[in-house]
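Explain this one:

_____
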Amino acid sequence: MRLVLYTGKGGVGKTTTAAASAVSSAKRGCRTLVASADAAHSLGDVLERRLGAEPQQIAPNLDAVEIDARVEVARHWGRIQDYAVATFLYHGIEAVVAEELAMLPGAEELVTLLAVERIAASGAYEQVVIDCAPTDGALRLITLPEVVSGMLRIALPVLEAVSGVAVPLARRLIAVPLPDRDVFREAEELLTRRLAGLQRRLIDRETSVRLVVTPERMVIDEARRAYTELALFEVPCDAVVLNRMLPPEAGELDFFRDWRRVQAERRSEVEEHFAPLPVLEAPLQDDEVTGLARLAAHGERLFGERSPHALLCESPRVRFTRDGDAFVASLPLPGADAQHLDVAKLDEDLVVTTPSRRRRLRLPRRFAALSLAEARLVGPSLEVRFARPAPGEEAR
């Protein structure tokens, strides 16, 4: 099952691009669902349909849905949320406010992704197209499963062990609501099955992100950072969509001549910075692209002979190899800055930190017993060399 996620800085046209991609795929016979994972839904406006929290058919081979985080929290996070609400109510917080506070940080993003995984695993579609939140929100959405999974893996066994002894005793002494084993059981189910399946889905070869940009410096710079951070978490990108390009005839007018020259320079930058990703170019439109007919035409202009649901570029993966006496881990990290990159080995994990993200990568057993010898950027990849520790020195 193909999963394609579209993101970009707010206002660059990612919702329109996602919808046009889905409409074009459906017209070519691919059973497609387009879903909005953005809290500020605008997918229904672009499709000119009223959408709800469950998929509905809007054209042959095409369904659409605007994922409702509250519905999904109740579905996936029921007991945990009930416990949080009960705790806030005990402290005198009004019920409506308590329910708002019970939406734990990251809960909306997490359950939105769980809804995507549920739909993808249903087998009802050949492709699911996701209109993500703007770049930073999308990065939180996409990297959250690994971050949350790592935290819960450490915290849950400790909390559950303590609760088994402390909670029965504490209930005799205080009236505040305390978690029971059902809360921990639900959290463990979230960790061991749902989050694990979600992580596998996001790094699967049938999943890719498409970055939507316009020919503007700040927009391109933000997309470059996103490209690096997605690579850090092994979430592959397969294309860049360059929106709102002036048509060639605009260059004949004095007013647009410099503008078109700047756009040509920006296009060259995009091709250079995001190579080898293909750059799909979309012209500036004379009006908003809404409705199935205009979306279909936009999709045809954007993809041309390419299939919208095809994997347009294969992304490299993390590789573990041997080089003489040294062992080498190679992590794709396009666009990374060596001066703002930190690499460390912590227990059996390799920890890579960029200015805004940190990834803890579990090492193969052979590498986990070694010491970190060197880390350097080699082209678009981070090359980390490991060596056997000196006699008497433990691997670090």
In short: The longest helix spans residues 135-173. Confidence is low (pLDDT under 50) at residues 154-178. The first strand starts at residue 2 and ends at 7.
